[in-house]
Amino acid sequence: MGQEPRTLPPSPNWYCARCSDAVPGGLFGFAARTSVFLVRVGPGAGAIPGTPPFRVTGELVGHTERVSGFTFSHHPGQYNLCATSSDDGTVKIWDVETKAVVAEHALHQHTISALHWSPRVKDLIVSGDEKGVVFCYWLNRNDSQHLFVEPRTIFCLTCSPHHEDLVAIGYKDGIVVIIDISKKGEVIHRLRGHDDEIHSIAWCPLPGEDCLPINQEENSEPELPNGKVIAQTPVTKGCYLATGSKDQTIRIWSCSRGRGVMTLKLPFLKRRGGVDPTVKERLWLTLHWPRDQPTQLVSSCFGGELLLWDLTQSWRRKYTLFSASAEGQNHSRIVFNLCPLQTEDDKQLLLSTSMDRDVKCWDMASLECCWTLPSLGGFAYSLAFSPVDTGCLAIGVGDGMIRVWNTISIKNNYDVKNFWQGVKSKVTALCWHPTKEGCLAFGTDDGKVGLYDTYSNKPPQISSTYHKKTVYSLAWGPPIPSLSLGGEGDRPSLTLYSCGGEGLVLQHNPWKLNGEAFDINKLIRDTNSIKYKLPVHTEISWKADGKIMALGNEDGSIEIFQVPNLKLICTIQQHHKLVNTISWHHEHSSQPELSYLMASGSNNAIIYVHNLKAVIESNPESPVTITEPYRTLSGHTAKITSLAWSPHHDGRLVSASYDGTAQVWDALQEEPLCNFRGHRGRLLCVAWSPLDPDCIYSGADDFCVYKWLASMQEHSRPPQGKKSIELEKKRLSQPKPKPKKKKKLTSRVSVKQELYDGNEEESIRESAGPAENGSVSEQEGEEEAREPELPCGVASVVSREPVICPPLSLGLEKPKVIVNNKVTLLKKEPPKDKPEALVIKKRKARSMLPLSTSLDHRSKEELHQDCLVLATAKHFKELNEDVSADLEERFHLGLFTDRATLYRMMEVEGKGHLENGHPELYHQLMLWKGDLKGVLQTAADRGELTDNLVAMAPVAGYHVWLWAVEAFAKQLCFQEQYVKAASHLLSIHKVYEAVELLKSHHFYREAIAVAKARLRPEDPILKDLYLSWGAILEKDGHYAVAAKCYLGAASAYDAAKVLAKKGDAASLKTAAELASIVGENELSATLALRCAQELLLARNWVGAQEALQLHESLKGQRLVFCLHELLSKHWEERQLSEGESASSSYNTWSTGSAGPLPERVTAVWKSAFGLDTPEQYQAALQQLQTIKYPSATNNTPFKQLLLHICHDLTLAVLSQQVAAWDKAVEALLRAVVRSYDSGNFTVMQEVHSAFLPEGCDHLRDKLGDHQSPATPAFKSLEAFFIYGRLYEFWWSLSRPCPESSVWVKAAHRRTTSVEQSQQLDDAGSEETDTQAPQPEPSKPPELDMRLTEESKRMLNTCKELFSEKHASFQNSQRTVAEVQETLAEMIRRHQKSQFCRPTANGPDKNDPEHEAEQPLPSPQSLGKEEKNEPLSLPELTKRLTEANERIAKFPESVKTWPFPDVLECCLVLLHIGSQCPGSVTQEMQQQAQELLQKYGSTKVYQRHCQTFCT
Predict the structure, then answer these.
(1) 3-class secondary structure, 202
(2) 0.70 exceeded by the pTM?
(3) Residue 1230 contacts by C-beta under 8 Å, 6 or more apart in sequence?
(4) Confidence check: pLDDT of 375 > 80
(5) How remote is the C-alpha of 1165 from its chain's centroid?
(6) At what angle do helices 1020-1036 and 1004-1014 cross, to 10 degrees?
(7) Which backbone phi and psi does 890 adopt, to 5 degrees?
(8) What is the band of 1237 on the pLDDT scale with cuts at 50, 70, 90?
(9) 216-249 burial, b for 16+ CB within 10 Å, e for fewer?
């Protein structure tokens, strides 16, 4: 048993990547709550020989919130410097020798999450925060640099030990980056591979990449493009980096390659107790790369084990388990930090911190645990030494665990066992059985009382009777008579007494804890015949001989009872505040009378000692009251929480107080002996060592238990005055209380934080702790600062006072800080002056009788006068005038006199309420009077009816109620609460009015719901609602809902129409299906066709065919679409299509078969649509013939044009199948003319090549007779065919090297439809417009021959184009067109002159003759036009008439079937003749020139006629 102080420190903070560190020589530091604890390790620790060589040596105090990072300077000569980061937003640099802050900065605006002191740069400290901001701070020059690398949450960062500018940063989402701080944080590598939080980053201790035998090929990871590609500079070359992540993997990265080279997956180890597969294992993966063993890596694992990985055999996943032989040496929960330490005697140690609240030290040589430092995760509420097992100290802690510390262990200073099973809450009271070994009673803050056998591993026995509030104290005492305990024989010799926060003391039978406990108040009441209310008990203490029991009460009194029946012998009225602690002097004193001394402490700071010898021995009949103490011990400045007599001295007492100190007194002399000031919080418990007279243990709300020696204290009394203020300052450096806001938990804690009734921090209730754990279930937080009582400076769990008063604003309150849970403060808030515990006050309800109340709070004289007036009024029946006047003035006395006066009082109060704008209170007062009708009338007039008033209206009668509801509905309408108004109208069965109200304010949905629920289905109102709502929805573009409305109104046709309104394929298809369902077949067919056309535009032939399948009547259209698809596919194969073929959706039958297109079409029709017999073809033909499409123009969209052409081609193929050749010719001609009219030469030629590959001869044969009615149509078709061939031939001459007709076709294929539209109507003329000589093609002689022969064949057929009647007809049409154009121009000018007249000062331009004098282009002779001779309106009209008459005389066949422009063909032939002399016969040239001279009078052809005809 060593004579030296010891500390049981708070637990190291959880979920921090680096909050512990160590330096060579043996100094280790870890962050715990708001400070850092320093531990000296090794020979220099000064430990007693034989015990583990370490000692807690001090604390760095200064942060006000949780410390999140801690790092030493690892530079020789400045091992005494370290840095901390905290949730208070600051980074502080400390000197551990003086324990003072050397420098600090508050650069971060967000919660700091990572910190490291550069191992290469002596004065560089790098920190990162949750928003991704990194600060580099140079201590010596007090300079900093801000880097914003990535907008992600930083989890850890580590500076390179080899390159002073490189820093590796790990993020919450699994990204790791290496940055160069000399280049403004430029990313050197971005390492991707992890997919969850990065918990730890370790650089390989050796530079270069030769230390690990990793082949390029060996790694299984793909090459990753990481950030920028950079040159292999010495800076980035060669170093390994290890990262540990929550994704359960460790990855080794190569810095020269910028990618992963090895991945280690954590193994699931078979642990004792096993793992519950349903519970997702919480994991923190921290790493340490040993400096002297670069091929090995230490990592944490799932349940707290540590693994030593062999990196030379990565493919085998080879690792060694730490402490594999000794069971129970490992941590039982996840490990957060690992730090290496080299002691003075050169031992290589590794220190680990864990969620199990132990700090362990490992010998790296043997991988065994050298020693363990236990710690506390909550307030130390209670201390108790075992009277049997000497030196065994039980500690009740707020983290839900009981610690039993064997303080006399020779081998281990910190021989501590943890008991957590069945506790699940803060342990607030402990008491050992006086004689039974290992029997420990405990009480918790949720009212539980239990018994532990500390020698076994069994869970505790729990009493079935719980206190309603916190258990304040426990005591073993003799059994007292009660029904539950039975006869004398089977009684235990001692029973357990517990006192709870609700003020009851219960007696528990330790043999039958499942039986009901006995409330001793019953016995006290019976024995002492007490009728009045018993006081609220807050403390119980038995005198050591078991004959006398003392109860401390909330009112400050102490009652002394005698066994066996608890006869009250004495009451001590000394304290006037809640009694916290009572302690009887021990029995083995040299002066026996001292055993009658009883010390007590309460919520005021004075300790009283009473000597009860006289009272107890005299055994008075009736209770004695004592008001004078035997001794008074004053000196503390705050409440007393615990007292303990020294078992080694006479009359020596130690006290623990909220003033932060423990005081030893000589009670007999009333003299303070020594004062202990080591705690940083309010003391909660104190115990004197049973073995060492100089040794005392104390526990406080700073999560510490200190063992201290009375003789070593430099102060003799508690701090007063200035010293007290200093101590306050010391405690104030603890976190400030915050208002209870919901705080945003950061990333790193994904747990249920149950701060039940403001608890200390840990969610102990979460579960009983998994079987493999040696600690309470995942208590996350570590903070007890959230008790309801402590922050207010009152009623701590140990000090028993109701929670009412505001806080002592001395900073003595326990700060509310979540120590282990990251708390995000987005901005640093300036400190607030006011204590903020008052913020959450409940709002007081407004008084119903405020005037009367205020009159009852006047001066004492006025109140006395009230009494006299009231007495007079009550006593005398006849009142004189003075008294009546007094009563009038003092209206509030109506409460105590008669009803009339009361009514007057209510009237005055009611007026007051109305004036102050509280009509509802006025209404309540009137209701109290019983004037309900009046209240309703007044409220209705003022528009102040409420739900409550209307609900009470039936009391005044049915008619009043009806009237009130209607009035309320009107009022609600004024307030625009229409739905509520309608509900009230429904309550009086005014359904139509309610529906109309809703409808008129556009609450259609609600109106329909009401009407449907309350009216007959056939009621016309319902249909009207549907139609009105449908119309509005349709107008607003909500077509689907509108369609539902029309369906609701049984108007299915409208529903289909409105659905189709949007016009997209999906809507049209739905509309078609809907129409089909309801039997609107015609509409359905129309919509299905529209849908198919829409899908066709999107090149979705499959969808189009599906849409057309809906109706038999669309069979013909299916054939058209099929041909369209085959044609498109045919063109796509030849790269002709204009659309993007990639997005096309073809049917399966569109691919495959070769052969001429018409044959492929009929084959598919037969296979896919079952078209086989002539009858079927005839039916399809009839179906399609009824559909007429308008003729094409230059502006017809290509896709529409194509559909119309396919329609005509389908008719042609069907006609051929039924041998109606005349119809086939007409249909083919229509298809060709459409492409001609739209200016799309390419399509025209493609139709020719697909459907007339061999020319028109076979059709001539089929038609046979020249007198066939289809002959004119055939002539036109043939003319168009020749016209196309003519152009192809001519263009082939214009190319530098015409190779073949296929090449020519390719050239045409590239001609856009826009060019075509410019060329076709007057293609020849435009070609020569330029008047430039055509380039003479350089032709090889044999090519010339071929061309000549081809020209003969071609040009013979071209005679067919020289149709004089068509030339004449076309000339007349051109004349009409030009005259119309001239007339239009005249009208435009006339309108312009009319518009300009008001501003023109010129001659009167009214008459049309004048208008006609303006020079106009003349459609007649060139000469006139050159002379600008005007044309008159009559002359133009005459020409128009003549031309129209000429047109009328032409036969119908010429007018019906279009023909290529004859003059255009003449010009093309003459061009060919000029380009290729001899190719066109003289006769044909002559014929062409004649036609041009005869019919080329119109403006279009005049210039060209001059060229060729002069």
Answers:
(1) strand
(2) no
(3) 1208, 1211
(4) yes
(5) 57
(6) 160
(7) -95, 65
(8) confident
(9) eeebeeeebebbeeeeeeebbebbbbbbbbbbbb
